[in-house]
Design a protein that fits this description.
The complex is a heterodimer. By secondary structure, chain A is an alpha+beta fold. Chain A contains 21 helices and 21 strands. The longest helix of chain B is centred in the middle third of the chain and has 17 residues. The chains are: A alpha+beta, B alpha/beta. Chains A and B meet through helix 6 and strand 2 of A and helix 1 and helix 2 of B.
């Protein structure tokens, strides 16, 4: 692996971590705005900024470092209780967080140099932040390089200096000893420690390079800027830090971290200098870095200000707290793919074993049991809590609510419900539609709400829970609800329902997801409600899920999405057409019936008095051969619509791993994937949703309300 | 600038390293081999800096390297006599105990 590739991989890790930290920061800020109890949340937000700054420093992303530094300083003062938490503060901090997202995305796109287009926004945001820093005792803070510009002298107090000159400083005539000697002009040098730990092996020592570091305690009344000014000429290629008792925890953390393994020694010296009250030190990080939140992945250890850090290579970080590890998603996908093949091969072996002896069957039975364990374990690896997805909506609710002049609180429950990563990735957009709809059209303005006898603040709830092999996500609002009569009236107007049909209430709400309904002009809040709902449904259905709406006019609306826990494995039902095998997802199979002798020519079946439209797989899939004398019908249901698939033979249940179809098959209608059977044959998996759409396109609206 | 002293008769590995003149970044490159040679194969080494007229960080690094190497190789190391300028620099950087072979830092 080339250095360049390694670096690129490291930057990619940075981007991923930064995105996570920025998400944490966002939810933390929103929590603060809602008046959440302070310290822990402030700390989390601060740590996020701190870690991003440190990691960005590793990659020389100076603009991110510079920007985050100011943000971090403000947060540090919030943490110290010097700045009160207020809506205005959060309103200043949120856009900074957003700006960091932009900067990180730019890095993700491969542009590591600062983009001049980012500058004006950044400057404007920093300007607002500096307002918070400009209060008394703000200026000339440690090591910020702010020179003392005649500002009044400070009282005599200890100042700690950490001096690491650049390697070439001696050759350039800058000798740390002279500088330390000079410091006595400013006050009393009360303690100096020479650190020679960084001297290399004798054989590899460059006798003219500077290896020594010095920790100096200076008792002085000069302000920090004046002290720092002494080192103006060395700061560029060295690492000079000047701290006094006003130093924030992060500045000390930074210093300690910059010394890597020697951090604990530096920390000891800082403590001894008397600039920090010792009791406050208990929370200091382990030397070498901080582990954000105490539970972060080992990869998020930071080595802030690390231009000079001995362990500046990201690949060498870690070894602190490995409760979680970060794994490349593609690697995980490959594992699951392989496990899928193992499951299939196992099934094949089990089939063969049935013809073998008792002993072989027992052995294979045990192997099968283990394979199932491996399969479940592998799938669980890819399970992630849905809470991260939910968390994103805090911001949406906050921003959209503010824009619409509505006061809405978001209630999240079941955020730790786990679901396959692939499902989580696809659920974001549909949820976004639903949340926006609820905010735009569901929840009323405060005035309207009060007039209706409701609390002025609306509530939007996102809830998730497991239910018999599925995850159910419910989006509930306590808004004005949807009037089923008006939906029905609109549907009749648009010709979606026969004038004399009287569909049930749930069927009426299902009309909201009809493309014909959704494209209706936004003439009323009602039709507006339907905008994009067909898209939502399409997305959910593509995940083999289902969606339904219930509503009480005046009291609120609830949209319930049901999704499979994983997209990788389904229980299938095998059917045969000629020599070809197809697999139908078992959860969509209702029942199987034989085609009655008199129904062979028809496109529908009389199923206990109901009309069941039929699809002939042989015809649809163009399977060659002659129709057998006896045919079977597999009754499948999707989104409340039942359809019969006409097949030759029923071959039983089979657990199957879905493999995506190649691009060659991408446009084949009614096929959702492929799988390999125990005998090595390939079988196509029927996409019931697509077939149902096909039927409805051909037979609507009669087929729309099969249940009557 | 520096001369590894004649080994004393009867104990060829007891050595004296005499450093003199400038002990700075200007002379460090030529002094380093002398320091290493004095350390090599020695069992006891005394470093005499009486003749040193100037000491800077580069020179100090050599003294500290000698100290570390001696400790690592089990060489008995002693200092002296030392020039006033050496004492002065050691005092500035908090290493007054070094020539006596004691602690590394003072306050």
């Amino acid at each position: 692996v080339s250095v360049e590739e390694e670096l690129r991989a490291a930057v990619a890790t940075f981007v991923v971590e930064a995105a996570e930290l920025l998400a944490e920061m966002e939810s933390g800020l929103l929590e603060l705005e809602r008046g959440a109890d302070g310290d822990e949340v402030v700390n989390a937000v601060f740590r996020a900024a701190h870690t991003i700054k440190g990691s960005a420093g590793l990659f020389g992303l100076d603009d991110i470092v510079a920007f985050t530094h100011v943000l971090e300083s403000v947060l540090d003062r919030v943490r110290a209780g010097e700045i009160a938490i207020s809506a205005e503060l959060v309103a200043s901090l949120l856009p900074c967080r957003d700006h960091l997202v932009v900067l990180c995305e730019r890095v993700a796109a491969g542009q590591t140099a600062p983009d001049p287009r980012d500058l004006p926004i950044g400057e404007e945001l920093l300007g607002r932040l500096r307002g918070y820093l400009a209060e008394p005792d703000g200026p000339g803070r440690a090591g910020d390089g702010t020179p003392g510009d005649g500002t009044p002298a400070a009282p005599v107090r200890p100042v700690h200096l950490s001096l690491r000159f650049g390697p070439d400083s001696l050759r350039n005539g800058m000798d740390p000893i002279s500088f330390i000697h000079y410091l006595s002009v400013l006050g009393e040098v009360s303690g100096v420690t020479t650190m020679d730990e960084l001297l290399p092996q004798a054989c590899s020592m460059d006798p003219e390079a500077c290896y020594l570091a010095f920790q100096v305690t200076l008792r002085t009344d000069a302000n920090l800027g004046t002290v720092a000014e002494v080192f103006d000429f060395v700061r560029d290629d060295g690492d000079i830090r000047v701290l006094d008792s006003a130093a924030g925890q992060h500045e000390i953390d930074d210093l300690v971290a910059s010394f890597g393994p020697l951090g604990s020694r530096v920390l000891e010296l800082v403590e001894r200098s008397g600039i920090v009250p010792v009791p406050g030190l208990s929370g200091l990080p382990v030397p070498g870095g901080t582990v954000p939140g105490g539970s972060g992945p080992a990869g998020s250890v930071t080595v802030p200000g690390a231009r000079q850090a001995p362990e500046g290579r990201p690949g060498e970080r870690g070894g602190h707290d490995i409760r979680t590890i970060r794994v490349d998603a593609a690697r995980l996908d490959r594992l699951i793919d392989t496990v899928g093949e193992l499951v299939i091969a196992g099934a094949g072996a089990a089939e063969c074993a049935q013809r073998g002896g008792e002993e072989l069957r027992a052995a294979i039975g045990e192997v099968t049991r283990l394979i199932e364990g491996v399969r479940d374990g592998a799938l669980r690896l890819r399970m992630v809590p849905i809470g991260t997805t939910f968390g994103r909506f805090q911001r949406v609710v906050h921003d959209v609510g503010a824009a619409l002049g509505k006061d809405v609180s978001l209630v999240i429950s079941g955020g730790d419900t786990e679901v396959d990563k692939a499902v989580v990735e696809h659920i974001g957009d549909p949820l976004m539609h639903l949340v926006r709809n609820a905010l735009d059209h569901g929840i009323e303005s405060p005035a309207e709400r009060v007039a209706a006898g409701k609390p002025a603040q609306g509530t939007l709830e996102l809830r998730a829970f497991h239910d018999s092999g599925s995850i159910v996500v419910v989006v509930t609002d306590d808004g004005r609800g949807i009037d089923p009569d008006r939906v029905l009236a609109t549907a009749r107007e648009r010709g979606l329902v026969e004038p004399d049909a009287t569909p049930s209430e749930s069927d009426v709400y299902a009309l909201l997801f009809e493309p014909g309904f959704s494209t209706a002009q936004q003439v009323s809040d009602l039709s507006g409600r339907g905008v994009g709902m067909d898209v939502v449904k399409r997305n959910v259905v593509a995940l083999r899920g289902g969606i339904e709406v219930s509503s009480t006019p005046g009291a609120g609306t609830s949209v319930r999405i049901r999704l499979p826990l994983t997209l990788a494995i389904i229980d299938g039902f095998m059917v045969g057409v000629g020599a070809t095998t197809f697999v139908v997802p078992l959860d969509q199979v209702i029942e199987c019936v034989a085609v009655p002798p008199d129904g062979r020519g028809r496109d529908y079946l009389d199923l206990r008095g109901e009309v069941l439209p039929l699809i002939r797989l042989r015809q649809l899939m163009a399977v060659p051969g002659v129709r057998p004398a006896r045919e079977n019908v597999v009754v499948v249901e999707h989104a409340g619509v039942r359809t019969g698939l006409v097949v030759d033979t029923l071959r039983g249940e089979f657990q199957t791993v879905i493999k995506p179809l190649g691009p060659l098959f991408a446009r084949v209608r009614g096929v959702g994937g492929s799988t390999i059977l125990g005998n090595g044959e390939v079988a196509l998996i029927i996409d019931v949703a697509a077939l149902v759409r096909h039927v409805m396109a051909g037979a609507a609206p009669a087929a729309l309300t099969p249940g009557g | 600038v520096s001369t590894p002293a004649d080994p004393g008769p009867g104990d060829p590995e007891r050595r004296i390293l005499e450093l003199a003149g400038e002990l700075t970044v200007q002379t460090a490159a030529e002094t380093l081999p002398d320091v290493l040679a004095a350390l090599d194969g020695s069992t006891a080494l005394r470093i005499d800096t009486a003749g040193v007229v100037e000491l800077d960080t580069a020179g100090l690094q050599l003294l500290l390297l000698a100290r570390r190497e001696a400790a690592a190789r089990g060489i008995e190391l002693s200092w002296g006599p030392t020039a006033p300028v050496v004492d002065e620099v050691l005092a500035i950087v908090g290493l007054t105990g070094v020539p006596a072979g004691a602690g590394r830092e003072t306050r």
